[in-house]
Amino acid sequence: MPSINRILRNEYDFEYVFEYDLKKQKQYGGPTIYDGGGDLNRRWYVYYSFRNPETGKLERQPPIYADLDNYNTVKERLLRARALCKSVKLILEEGFNPYTPEPDNSILSGQSDKEPVNINSAKKVAEAIDFALAYAKNLHSESSYNDFKSRITRFRDWLVDSKPATAKMNEIESIDAIGFLNDILQRTSPRNRNNTRAALSSLYKILKNNQIVKENIIEGIDILKSSPKKNKTYTKQQEEDILKLMAEKDKHLLLFVKFISINMLRPVEVCRLQKKDIHIIDKILKVRAKNQPVKTKIIPDILLQDIPDLTPFKNTDFIFTPNGVGEWDAKEVNRRNHFGKRFKIIKDELGLGEEYGLYSFRHTYITRIYRELRKELTPFESKSRLMLITGHSTMDALEKYLRDIDAELPDDYSYLIKG
């Protein structure tokens, strides 16, 4: 029987098998993110190991810091680190070897005087935009992301149809974006065109931060003057007619409107309310708002008495569903549209046009409260009190809002006209 030692002594066979097995071994480990335990004061980086051709062992390579420290929140820094990690992995898969200092290795080794090749800059249009959409999903609320995705998807499809299949995202010029925005303007309105421009600018910010493009080409494109369609405030008679009709035909919608009117919530904020957000004993509610993650507001006694008994329901049950308090597996935008359609039935019966909507109740009650405050207080004192009620984050924002809804009216100036 042949001896295994005798076989191993055959140097040629042994070296052949060794080299063969080494090639089969994975040449690198990672890449991996070091996040300092989530501490933003520590330096984050991506690291990887590579097999030393002399020892055959995986050895840790120098860390890659890139621009991770430029991001000031854990969420943003982690997203950037993941993107960097993915790029490093792609480079390694393409055959990068830190032990072979060739020009192709300049990306990670830094041993070339030439400008490093950035693998992200090679992304084609559809690939780059799909990457940005996935990135943005973690940064936006559901409703704002859906709007962003809709606008950006149209831009992607427009570019794919008008550009060669090989076109890269960093080859797109501002004239291309202008052409797309002009098409939006011709088909819709200046306001929609401006909103699309804002979405494109956000897209390019993501692309630039991830080194897919060198600059935000949208920043140099002008914003067009537009006249946004406003929700009018209701007259006293209109308000009485609407409230009376809702009390007769849709009491659940009436309660929905009271949260807008009395608690000064936006319609979408009312749709977000769950049992866990309503604290009856403390007379407060907590809601995810437009200008802050969680907003706490008091529940005035005039509204508190209309809230049904929530004891039998789960904490995650929504206050407003098609059939009252309960579960509702629907997207936020669909929940908002549901109550908008229910209200349209009411206002159509009263012959009110599209310039009136659920938002009109918020305008109406804020105007009413402000004018009552002005009877005894100065404009500044009135606005300071009103800010606590409306939830506006700054005085400038509140003042702009009051101007938009014509809340401030002059006293009767007849005496100035009489001779």
Automatic annotation (TrEMBL):
<dbReference type="GO" id="GO:0015074">
    <property type="term" value="P:DNA integration"/>
</dbReference>
<dbReference type="GO" id="GO:0003677">
    <property type="term" value="F:DNA binding"/>
</dbReference>
<dbReference type="InterPro" id="IPR050090">
    <property type="entry name" value="Tyrosine_recombinase_XerCD"/>
</dbReference>
<feature type="domain" description="Tyr recombinase">
    <location>
        <begin position="229"/>
        <end position="414"/>
    </location>
</feature>
<comment type="similarity">
    <text>Belongs to the 'phage' integrase family.</text>
</comment>
<dbReference type="InterPro" id="IPR013762">
    <property type="entry name" value="Integrase-like_cat_sf"/>
</dbReference>
<dbReference type="InterPro" id="IPR011010">
    <property type="entry name" value="DNA_brk_join_enz"/>
</dbReference>
<dbReference type="InterPro" id="IPR010998">
    <property type="entry name" value="Integrase_recombinase_N"/>
</dbReference>
<dbReference type="GO" id="GO:0006310">
    <property type="term" value="P:DNA recombination"/>
</dbReference>
<dbReference type="InterPro" id="IPR002104">
    <property type="entry name" value="Integrase_catalytic"/>
</dbReference>
<keyword id="KW-0233">DNA recombination</keyword>
<keyword id="KW-0238">DNA-binding</keyword>
<protein>
    <recommendedName>
        <fullName>Tyr recombinase domain-containing protein</fullName>
    </recommendedName>
</protein>
